[in-house]
Amino acid sequence: MSAINKPVNQKAWFLILPVIVCVAFSAIIPLMTVVNYSVQDIISPERRIFVGTEWFVSVMRDEDLHGALLRQLIFSFSVLAVEIPLGILVALLHAGTGLEVFGCSGSRGPVLVDSVECGGHHMADFWPYRHWAVGCGHDEAGY
Fold this sequence. Notes:
Blueprint: H1 17-38, E1 40-42, E2 48-50, H2 54-60, H3 63-94, H4 115-118, H5 121-126
Antiparallel strand pairs: 1-2
């Protein structure tokens, strides 16, 4: 067999250029607003006071903020310390048990969507027309 030589054409990249321009424009405008508000104390529409980096310095030296950040980090890590081992334990307990997960399993393992062979199996468990699941490798009652 001979290899097919296709010409390299990069013109399709120009098709996404309008999207990139729109996304960049819609991201720049809110960013400019945030920067503007972060360096001004806006008391009223007519009265604005430029404060520069004064607020940033006061916020970074605030002990309440440091305490809140530390508490948030401790909470997040403690939740992850419980969730990760628990998730691994549940996954290991369910692996190989033959429990069905959104479709047919068994010798093939869990399948998320198997609409050709067993499309109506889980629907048949709760659906009054259980005979619809016949053909999924189950008995005549749909189980």
